[in-house]
Amino acid sequence: MKRWLVKAETTIGNHSDRLNAINIFPVADGDTGTNLYLTVRAAAHAAHGTDAVADAVADPSQHHLLHTVAAPDPALHDVGAVLAQAGQAAMEQARGNSGTLFAVFLCAAAEPLAGHTRISSPLLAAALNRAQIRAWSALSDPVPGTMLSVMEAAARAAAAVDSAHDGDDSNHTLGLALDAAVEAALAAVVRTEDQLDALHAAHVVDAGGVGMLLILDCLRSAVLGEELQSELLDGLHGYDVQDPHIHADMPRDDGVELMCTISLSPLDAAMLRQRLDEMGDSVIMSQVGGAADAAGNYRWRVHVHVPDATPAVELIRSLGEPTDISVSELAVPRDPDAEAAVAPVLATETRTPDGHAR
Fold this sequence. Notes:
The protein is an alpha+beta fold.
């Protein structure tokens, strides 16, 4: 699982420019590749936090690093625990629609794997199914033709293999399930072009869907010990290196993307979702961690696109004290190199409604 996330970090990083180039839905801001890369990177680094602690303890010259890495997890060989740790970090540092949905996917996938030291076809099917359901439900207004459709197709394919083999938990059947999941994900990516009017008009596939396909192929590669399928993306419309950055010629979207983390009761969370739906769109809300605090509140990661951040921030603050507030202009394309350079700082900053860090 750690190998999967590291491989995904590298692969999404290598593909971030092309993912940005075809990113026109839900807004043409050209940042899906960047957002997904930064979120996957957070997951990968969190999954390896226990290794960093072990190395620092073993090497006295590295003791100064102990305060910078996560505490060792006693369930180090628990597949679900490793992914849950990675998923929580991804959720805390999620960027954009695509990054937030991947974080939701990872956190949910970890749940059926809790307590298991190896993955199997039945567990893969359960994890992918839980993940796609949670991702669909995190969005207030989910639509097909996005990475949600890719998640769902992969889950259905893995479930079909598991059913056909009567729950066989051999490595051979696991390989068949992974192959089927990636094949179905590719077919779902191709279909996205005709599922959304904006993609059809621009003659491109969905950027988030391609990113999810790459992540699933990284899982297949890591588990089976095989190379990534170099020809996987051949023929996808808009994805050739010589293709232009399509989003650059699209109408610019006004407004901002607002993200934060906040502790709320389920009732207040439902009210916040409803009010944010009235203020803007692309509302995503999902729990960060599974346990409630002493007051019965759960931690939530909140994402929304709104015309103006101030009313939304005031609403959120009326319900609790948010942390990790970030406000980004939707109309400003982001540079992957610049984002990667400042990401460690942005991950710990709280931002005011006008976007200034404090």
